[in-house]
Design brief:
Helix content is about 30%, strand content about 0%. It is an all-alpha fold.
Length: about 270
């Protein structure tokens, strides 16, 4: 089975049955203008499975939708798992389809990280194991609904995380000097403007509303870091590891923010 590319793990809403707008719940808050339980279509979902207010989600009170990324899980569930049969024309599929979607999203997120790690030359010592993991996960994603639902995602995530951590250490280990370890740290609102965080471990760190203006985040490991409302104005994220589009969409920045290759500058910046 050929290895996946990043392009294979990007959302294609035109090939999806609006699953993120139906399967997932959200609560009225600063992120969502209304409550919606899991399994109920959002009131803005149109008959063609498109969002009726997509162009103005932030202005209409739905910024939470703009930071969500399914990593291509929506089209995989819609077109592969259920063979192009949508939940409206075949209501009997809805329960299984909505249950599979969040599991598929987690699997595709893992594939996103593994695919990135396979592109890191310094991580070559773990490439063979990463290729095996990629093939195994991809095989799972192409299985039947009941097979996907039977997967222990937490156990699989733990196995893959060990490989990703090793890849991260190999990349960051080539950098000179002492590298900061802020793994899982509570850095909410932290004043880190201009900080030298090159090669730092920020895995799972809480950086909500942190001031990272002008910070050096080159080759920093940001897997799972919470960047909601973090100020990345002028920050340098060149070669930052395991950054997702959703993380950038949740943060603040501007034209001077240097992004990792392959990721887009959010429209609201």
């Amino acid at each position: 089975m050929p290895l996946l590319r990043r392009a294979d793990l990007q959302s294609d809403c035109a090939s999806c049955f609006g699953l993120c707008c139906v399967a997932l719940p959200f609560a009225r808050s600063a992120d969502f203008a209304a409550d919606k339980p899991a399994g109920k279509p959002c009131g803005n979902l149109q008959a063609d499975f498109r969002c009726g207010i997509h162009a103005g989600l932030r202005e209409r009170g739905y910024p939470g939708c703009t930071v969500f990324d399914c990593f291509g899980a929506g089209q995989k569930v819609s077109q592969v798992t259920f063979g192009g049969t949508d939940w409206r024309s075949a209501p009997g599929t809805s329960e299984a389809m909505f249950a599979v979607f969040p599991v598929m999203r987690q699997l595709h997120e893992l594939l996103w990280y593994v695919t990135e790690a396979l592109g890191l030359a310094e991580a070559r010592p773990v490439h063979r194991d990463l290729r095996r993991a990629s093939g195994r996960i991809e095989e799972i994603t192409r299985g039947a609904a009941e097979e996907i639902l039977a997967v222990d995602v937490n156990a699989l995530r733990g196995e893959v995380n060990e490989l990703l951590l090793r890849a991260s250490e190999l990349v960051r280990g080539r950098l000179p000097g002492r590298r900061r370890n802020h793994r899982g740290a509570d850095l909410i609102g932290a004043r880190l403007a201009g900080a030298d965080l090159r090669g730092a471990s920020l895995r799972g760190a809480l950086l909500v509303a942190a001031d990272l203006k002008g910070a050096d985040l080159r080759s920093a490991d940001l897997i799972g870091a919470d960047l909601r409302d973090a100020d990345l104005t002028g920050a340098d994220l060149t070669d930052a590891l395991f950054v997702t589009q959703a993380q950038l969409n949740a943060a603040r920045g501007d034209a001077s923010t240097v992004l990792p290759a392959g990721l887009a500058r959010p429209g609201h910046w």
